[in-house]
Amino acid sequence: MNIVLLLAAGTALIGAELPVVWVLSTGGTIAGQGASSTSLTNYKAGALRGEALVKAVPEIAQIADVRVEQIANVGSAELTIAIWLTLAKRIDKIFTAEPRTAGVVITHGTNTMEETAYFLNLTVRHDRPVALVGSMRPSTAISADGPLNLLNAVRTVLAPESRGKGVLVVLNDEINAARDVTKTNTLRVQTFRSPELGVLGYVDGDRVSYYRAPVKRHTVNSEFDVSGLKELPQVEIVYSYVEPSAVMLEALLASGPKGIVFAGTGAGLLSNVEKKAIQKAERRPVMVRSSRVGNGRVPPNEPHDSLGMIPADNLNPQKARILLMLALTKTSDPAEIRRMFGEY
User: pTM higher than 0.90 for the full model?
Assistant: First the structure.
């Protein structure tokens, strides 16, 4: 019987049966190409296919039997909910049908990576690891960061300690939890951070090391099931600022969305202008208060609670939108949705 033995440095014994890792490719900068090696900001995202990305890192073949599938090939600003649903369903099918699969790696653009990661964190129904990976420099750039990021993502999903930690984001030698991580810089390779809470661990040359684990509900413990869905309820985001006009909010309320997330000031606060627009609305969607600050919790607040608004805890607006969309697939009861925001 073949026994897989992964050495500390990330290589496998010759002749050993390698664990299977699926790479699902969606495009992004990691698959981008520029006109020259110094074209770091002007390039075409999603120019290469997933097979080319894996082939460019021959070290991966030493540690994993990689299967590559192209799901999309776009810049991350062009990701869609349809692609999210395709990814969730495909990952579940892989894990259910192929017990030899150790984990799944998704190559992805960085601009919306945190959103895709959190969606999958709530919808993948297995505890085997899923890691999203990308790069801040295209494949043609001097010191392109994509190849090492991809190798480290494969090493991460192979690590036994990665099981049960939910969906992960692996870049710049760091492992972050999907719920906590956000992109914090437009260009720097150290852009992904988990504000205040910090990384889960590191991917170094000798090993994958973890120092904490997520405690909120995710993946196998999630109540959300998208296996039969082709779309999600419409939820929009409204950004708060000094002396806002009510025009956009009134138009949005009249258009009939199922939900609205407010990126409020401070601890998720709205101006009187915004609150009056809500009070005048003939129909109120389910409303959630998040914050534009970037750190900290949004707690209950009586003037906003009286309008039926649900505090988002410490989820940023884009992630609060994802949780609200999924919540609305199950219920429109504010009390139930408030529970979900406390648990996820």
Answer: yes
